[in-house]
Amino acid sequence: MDALSNTFAALADPTRRAILARLALGETTVGELAQPFAMSGPAVTKHLKVLEHAGLISRSRVAQQRPAKLEPAALKAASDWIAEYRRFWDAKFDDLDAYLDELQKKNGESK
Amino acid sequence: MDALSNTFAALADPTRRAILARLALGETTVGELAQPFAMSGPAVTKHLKVLEHAGLISRSRVAQQRPAKLEPAALKAASDWIAEYRRFWDAKFDDLDAYLDELQKKNGESK
DNA sequence: TCCATATATAACTCATAGGTTATTTAACCG
DNA sequence: CGGTTAAATAACCTATGAGTTATATATGGA
């Protein structure tokens, strides 16, 4: 499957979105996720595999634990895809676009 | 299933994303979609049902045809969900936020 | 009314998703 | 080395998704 399909499919599960919300607060282990979600360890491991395959998280190792960490790049790709439709719901899109261009120029100079 | 899960699940299929891209150009019938996608009519009908159930499109009737039309509100909801993670990939998010607040004030006065 | 056209529904196949429990692997510690 | 803890894998179940072909429904027109 293509990367974007994997990303959207990963986001289509409320448990996985909750896991991402938890990871936004910091790295977390499988055990710390299994408890609040009232779910078996293997189930959490599977969800993490889906998220990892979608590029939304990465894993590391600390002793016996394998903490998961948020990887936002894939979210950005999904956001960019949706952004192409922004003009269909946001009447101010064109104005905003001009402002953002201007802002980027400013940042390029000052930062 | 919750609305957001339905939306992301609908977007997780490349054929359905292509259908949305086609609908961004204007309303389209089942027949006009089946041909370029080399797919049977019933398959298109099923994809349209998924998109409609996700709130991403609406249907109407013109003679024997049932044109489909893009409904961007559901896309906005998905975009808003992802936007909460923007700070994780966009270092300029805080600055941007200030600019957008300012812009909204301006629009409130002038428009 | 009868036929043609466009779409939807029914019935089916095959693959995958999400969950379970039981077992195995990996890493630390006495 | 032997035990303990954390996580992954295996094997399984059930439900759902995406596609097919065949059939039914709805609309328009001669």
Please describe the structure with a list of short key phrases separated by commas or semicolons.
Arc Repressor Mutant, subunit A, mainly alpha, 111 residues, DNA-binding, 6 helices, homodimer
Question: What's this model, at a glance?
Answer:
2 copies of one chain form a homodimer. Chain A is built from 6 helices and 2 strands; from the N terminus they run ααααββαα.
H and E string of chain A: HHHHEEHH
Q: Rg of chain A from C-alpha positions?
A: 18 Å
Q: How would you name the oligomeric state of the polypeptide chains in this document?
A: homodimer
The total beta strand count of chain A reads 2
Mean pLDDT across all residues of chain A, rounded? 89
Sketch the major β-sheet of chain A.
2 strands, antiparallel
Helix percentage of chain A? 55-70%
Strand pairing plus helix content of chain A: what structural class?
mainly alpha
CATH class bucket of chain A: Mainly Alpha
- CATH topology term of chain A: Arc Repressor Mutant, subunit A
User: How many domain units of chain A?
Assistant: 1
Low-confidence parts of chain A, pLDDT < 50 over ≥5 residues? Answer: none
Q: CATH homologous superfamily of chain A, by name? A: Winged helix-like DNA-binding domain superfamily/Winged helix DNA-binding domain
Shape of chain A: elongated
| Largest interface in this structure | A-B, 35 and 35 residues
Strand content of chain A: 5-15%
Count of DSSP helices of chain A? 6
Order of strands, widest sheet of chain A? 1-2
State the CATH architecture of chain A. Orthogonal Bundle
